[in-house]
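Usage

Read records sequentially. Each one opens with the input sequence:
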Amino acid sequence: MEKNYLQLIYIRRKRKYEESGIEAVLNGKYNVEEKDSNCIKVKTEKNYINGLWGRSISDCYAIVGENGSGKTQIMNMIMEFFSCQKQINSENSIEFSVLFEDIQTENLVYYCLNTNIEFELEEDSSEKQYIKKLTREEMRQISESYKVAYVHNILSRKDYMNNYLCDYNFSIGGLIAQDFRMNVEMHYSSNRIDKLQNYFDKQQFQIVDFIYKIKRKYKKNPFPLPSVMEISFTDDHYNWSYIIKKIKKNQVRNEIEEIQIEEKIHMFKEQIQNMNGEFCKFDNLWINETIKNLILNCFKGIAVSPVVPESNTDLECERFLDLFLENIDNGRTDIYETIINFFSKLRMEVHNKICIDNSIQFIKWLKKNHHEIRLLEVSGENKIIIPVTDERFNFVQELIRLYKNVNWEFPFYTFSFNVSTGEYYFLSLFSELYSIVDKEDGIKNIRAYGPIDSNVKNILLLLDEADLSFHPRWQKMFIYWITEFINLNFVGVKVQIIVATHSPILLSDFPSVNVLYLSKGKKETATGIQSCITMKDGNKKTFGCNIHTLFFDSFFLEKCGTMGNFAEDKINNLVETLTNYSHGFDEKYAENMIECIGERILQNRLQQLYSRRTSIPMEQMKKKKQDNSVNKTLELLRKQREEIDRLIRELEQKND
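and closes with the structure output:
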């Protein structure tokens, strides 16, 4: 089948050993409903707005509902279906029915796994439009050009354990699992290394790369970026122990030779540690630490190859140690020339010449930019702080380029930013999305997934409550930012976005036909009991709607009210106190409670009840409130006058 641009319309899953199933309409352009137990009717939405989301986005759809209503379950169902298509023998206990639209022709295609359900167009559909059933082979071909990306801003055990369910798992759990497996399988780190620290170190480098690529790509930043970044060094003690163990294991020699090797390793380690002492006393600490890590990385590249080790690995390790101990002289003061001279001799002795050449380039750059680095260094610490400005753009770009070339096996920098948790997650999310379209000078070691292939035509982006860490002001901008970002960067593909959210702010960016409401409960259908109710409600006008109205109408708060239960309980108790004349009450407590209530109508009504209870006329209460306000204002003015008088006296004394 020809690889066309497709968008997902509908999906249903039922396990044969379960009594209930789950279904969902996932596109604003169509509605579906059961005709009978073996047929589903498909109807076009007349109010659907074509082209609303931009040239690269086929559709953007929101799923809202109570906790436990099935939002994440729908996301997992989608990923599970596409995962089945990559398996040679699909699990025969699961039934799937899936409907797509060919975006270019508007024709519909559907596929059924382990079920015989049919899809049927409504009679009023376009004469040119038709619906076709796909074979297993045709569905397999579609899945080759159809990629699923999943984003979840919560560390979930399920995401960590099932990170293979989709093509691009950008959930926190999925990224940690993918990164750790890659490092252990490729021998980049020992089994005991802190997997979370390792993940964050690499992710932060990806964010740095993203920040400067975006600054270069767009003259005006489409979204906020950090003002400064800090570069320090990661803890390497686990790797060091692992490497020493590997070297000893490779040395198959007699007892005397083994002792000699151990002595050389000990001297090498001691010399490396002393590089922060007399040997480097004229250079700043950050440069010293960088050079030390460049040497260690070259040694690691020989001793712990991520691919099949060379047959002469043990000889190259020994030659490295001999050359280093012969050429490093603590009496010398020019660290740059000393290390370059060592690397130049080493280059003729080992097969991994690329690592050495890249290290030499890095050291030459450090020497050239020595004075600029000194200005950025934090005094007495192994770190530099760099403003994210246009003036530093070339400096950071070159640093990133050089670091990419040497950190393939063993990264040693750690990056951090002066940003909040929400801002950090924002940068993480967009840098991950950018990584799948960024074909420029990729960061191989921290990217679990390479850029999309040219044959990929469709990307389904699942955002599971991706707005959780954002301030309401950023929630207001989120859909605008994500659609602008995709339209600018995802060229040659069609992206379909499905957003699960609890935010009425996000919901106000979606037309009503592009919203799926989920509620807890079950319903009886022709095929059995469905585990959740799925519905589109065109009568709930969401696009551009007042946020307070959306909160009440679209998030199932009809029976709950719109204030917190704690406040509601205290106010109800206050009303009971004010209306029950058989008990005494604390007048000051009641007065303060009424004063702090933010809803004006409710506050006025409680003031009336208070006035009746205390027999104080409303006019007198208002006057008392005004008097309190005047007294507070007078007190503030007195303090300001005292401060002004103090400043005048100080100026007069200086003038004298």
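Summary fields computed downstream for this record:
- The first strand starts at residue 6 and ends at 15.
- Confidence is low (pLDDT under 50) at residues 277-282, 442-446.
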